[in-house]
Every structure is written in structure tokens, then in C-alpha cells.
Amino acid sequence: MSDFIPAFKSIDLSAPWLMPYLGMHQAFNQDLPTGELADWLNAYFKDHAIKPTLHNSDKPLTFVNQDDLPHGTAYEAHIHATANIPTRNNLHDWFGACVWSAFPKSKSVLNHVHIREMAKGANEHNGRNRVRDAITVFDENGAILMVKDRDIGRALQNFDWQNTLVKPRNQWHNPALPSADDAAQIFIFGHALLEQLIHPRKPLCSHAFILSVDDEFFELGLVDKLAYVDEVLAIRLDQWLIDGATPRDLSPLPILGVPYFWGNEDASFYDDANVFRSGRRA
Question: N- or C-end of the chain: fewer Cβ atoms within 10 A?
Fold first, then answer.
């Protein structure tokens, strides 16, 4: 783990997009353990009563060292067969575990659908069908947009940045000043995206899954919000990831354009057409 500690220390714990995972970061930062990351994760999950299971089962999932993954065995297949999550001592797998901590039901659905689609046989070009491509894009780069104001969701789907991010700015959740009057809030799901955001760059683009919610959602505290999102997202992912699903169903969203995520207070921030593009649906 000695190589992981300096990498972990490069994470800015004040970054607003880390809020769902901040407690886990703070706990690790306090411990700075010397053993295997998988061992620390198992202890943390146990201490905080986080109990991920295989989809549609009560079989608990456990983090194990990457060496437990047999050569030539697919990562997702190994999880499904053994209920063990191979884990390396690196930032990519750290962020993957963070997402398991906040959205365990949704992560389990993704594993379940991977296995179901693998059983159908791969396509002849790249060994994956479009449903598995969609899973991978969301798993690595996804964001969850919870919207009370459906106009914001529709504007995003139409690449209408003014009506997504600029004009309704005061309706977006501000991590520093949360309000029951919020109408839109984003949660980053993709662990590769979280890793990339260690070094924020304006062009970084997420792929958003949009969920509509009632007013009551924004009255909840963070823990209850995450539980609600995980419950609803798991159901919606299972409904979406069937024949015909494609990564194009997700809405591209330059993640640092999310209000309060970065220095984007000036409306001119959104004039950069190389980042905020007109898009394929415009």
C-alpha cells in the first residue's frame, strides 16, 4: 500500500463532487494503513454496516487482492462466481470501492447485466455487445442527475446548455448551501471520472442518467438521498439495460460545467463551443 498513500494524498478532499464519498476518504486519511487496500475496505464496510450483495441474492460481496483473480478470468465473471471483488492498491480501484459504498445495489445490477449479456455471446467485432458498452460507459464515466424541474433534464438531452446550466443556476444544488428548494443535483457514479477529476480539466465530460424526483427528495439529508438514489437507480438501470440499450442513451454533460463544481460563475464560461457543443440531437 506504500505506493498508494502518496497517490491518495493527491486527492483534494474539499472537491464538491466528492461529497457522497467524503466520509470514506476522511476515514482512510485518518488511518493511512500499511496493509492491503482490500483489507481496509472490508473493515470499513463492516464498521459502517455497508453490505453489498450479489443482485437478487443475500450473498455478501467481499473485497480481495487482485492476485485472487485467476489469469484469463473476466473481472465481472469472477465477481459473479465468487462474490469477491478483485482490488488493486491504486486510485482506480479506490474510487470503484467508493461507488460500491454509496450505490451498492446499482453496482450489483451492473454486474448482473454484464453476466447476462456475456451469456448471450459476444459480437464478432470487439467481444462486447452494445448493452455491455452502455454498462461500461456508465460504470466508468457516469453521473446521475436528479431533477425536480424536468425542463432542466430535457434541456440537457437537447444540448441546451443555457437552459441546463446557466439560466437555472440558482435551482442547482449548492454543496455549501443545500436547500429544500433545489431542483437539480448531480452525483458522480463513474470511478474513472472520479480519478480523472483529481486533476480537473474543463473538457472532462460525464455521461448522465437522468432521474426525475419529487420535492421531498431535496429535503433529505445526504445519507437518505444516497439510499434513495441507489434504490431508484438500480431499478431504472435494470429496466434500461436490455436489448437496444446503447451508450447514446446517456446525456453528455461537461462535468465541470455543473454549477458550484468549479469556477463557472461567469456565464462566459459556457461560451466555449469546444466543450459545450451543439451535440448530435440539436
Answer: C
Cα(124)–Cα(142) distance, rounded to whole angstroms? 26
Q: In what order do the strands lie in the sheet with 251-254?
A: 184-188, 142-147, 205-212, 251-254
How far apart (Å, rounded) are the C-alpha atoms in residues 194 and 134?
18
Burial class of residue 257 in the structure, from the number of CB atoms within 10 Å of its CB (0-12 exposed, 13-18 middle, 19+ buried): buried
Least Cα distance to 44 among 67, 59, 60, 62 occurs for 62
pLDDT tens-digit map of 104-120: 999 999 999 999 999 98
What pLDDT shows up at residue 40? 97
Q: What is the pLDDT of residue 281?
A: 52
| Angle of the 37-47 helix axis to the 91-102 helix axis, nearest 10 | 20
What's the distance, Cα to Cα, between the start and end of the chain in Å?
48
CA angle 93, 96, 99 (to 5 degrees): 155
CA-to-CA distance for 10 and 275, rounded, in angstroms? 26
Q: How far is CA 62 from CA 31, 41, 51, 78, 79, in A?
A: 20, 9, 9, 12, 9
Question: pLDDT averaged over the chain?
Answer: 95
What's the rounded Cα separation, in Å, for the pair 55 and 107? 9
Report the alpha-carbon angle 227-101-130, nearest 5: 85
- Please write the tens of the pLDDT for every residue from 29-46: 999 998 999 999 999 999
| 122-134 average pLDDT score | 72
Hey, is 265 helix, strand or coil?
coil
Rounded CA separation 276/127 (Å): 32
